[in-house]
Design brief:
Strand content: 15-25%
Number of strands: 12
Strand order of the largest sheet: 4-5-8-6-7
Helix content: 25-40%
Radius of gyration: 19 Å
Shape: globular
């Protein structure tokens, strides 16, 4: 680990001043500290924001939900408002990491975490995300766990967050505070596909701070859930996952929100699946037909071709569960 300075701030203005000068924000530290140990990240200054008042979970007057950036993952998963209104969020959090990590890691830090690609974390390997222009060792290496959606010739690493898949499905908004004031970024635009600049992963400016993640009010009744497929049931990242929320009224699907994880360079919204569901009556045949659209645009690699079929099965399975025809 390389030398660095550390400062702890007590208010947002102090945090923004330190961030504007190049300081890196840290709260739970469950990702950044690991990357520093592996010399993947070498920040000169750490700005501890764990004391900032960003720990509330509030129900909006419209019926949505605002989750403070410094709410711990375990706290959000167990919160009655989250569990009642958006089980997909609670379940995604419960299936993330280990209990010890969930008790430390924050919601803001979770969506800011960097990929778990082994080549990214191996400083001897070529990685455009870590060292732009060096190449991507995963393209012709062991790429079983890598992305089949949203890839480019520069990067095929997956985004590791589970709850980000739920946020993508529910079309959440990220609220940011920076030197130039407040702004909102739709979750679909917050996490960036690699394209030719894989080193830029989030739409966050210098010194900007995540304050809250807001989930919009959705029609009720709303049934939702999260299904994660992995190599083992204990602490492991997804091979594929599906976040589904359905509003069914009068026997017809009126709203459908669907996204996939473990298969995309960002949490992957599935609008083609959603369109296939809306206006239809729930049925086993419908789930099967809609799930076939989950892999449109997929570009599998040598070792992860199995993800094409696995993603379809995972989406179909979760549609059946949430839709009530299991």
């Amino acid at each position: 680990m390389h030398p660095f300075s550390y400062t702890r701030v007590s208010d947002t203005r102090e945090a923004l001043d330190a961030g504007r000068r190049g300081g890196r924000y840290i709260a739970g530290g469950t990702t950044l500290v690991d990357l520093m140990r592996e010399t993947v990240e070498r920040p000169e200054t750490l700005v501890d924001i764990s004391g900032l008042p960003l720990r509330e979970i509030l129900v909006t007057k419209e019926g949505g939900l605002r989750i403070g950036a410094l709410v711990r993952m375990a706290e959000a998963a167990a919160h009655p408002a989250v569990r009642a209104a958006y089980p997909v969020v609670s379940r995604a959090l419960e299936l993330s990491a280990s209990a010890q990590l969930r008790n430390m890691a924050t919601i803001g830090g979770n969506i800011m975490q960097r990929t778990r690609c082994t080549y990214f974390r191996d400083v001897t390997a070529d990685c455009n995300k870590r060292e732009p222009g060096s190449g991507c060792a995963a393209l012709h290496g062991i790429n079983r766990s890598h992305a089949i959606l949203g890839t480019s010739d520069h990067c095929v690493a997956t985004h590791p967050s589970d709850v980000a898949v739920a946020f993508a499905a529910l079309e959440a908004t990220v609220h940011l505070l920076g030197p130039d004031g407040e702004r909102e970024v739709p979750f679909a635009d917050f996490l960036l596909r690699p394209g030719s600049t894989p080193q830029r992963e989030q739409a966050v400016g210098q010194g900007e701070l995540i304050t809250t993640i807001e989930i919009p009010a959705l029609p009720r009744p709303l049934k939702s859930g999260y299904l994660k497929v992995r190599d083992r049931q204990s602490y492991e990242f997804a091979l594929t996952s599906a976040a589904v929320a359905l509003h069914i009224r009068g026997g017809i699907i009126r709203e459908a929100k669907v996204a996939a994880g473990g298969v995309g360079t960002v949490p992957w919204k599935l609008p083609a699946v959603e369109r296939a569901l809306i206006g239809r009556r729930p049925s086993d045949a419908l789930w099967t037909a809609a799930a076939q659209k989950a892999t449109e645009g997929a570009r599998p690699l040598r070792h992860n071709r199995f993800k094409v079929a696995l993603l379809k099965r995972t989406v179909e399975r979760q549609l059946r569960i949430v839709g009530g025809t299991k």
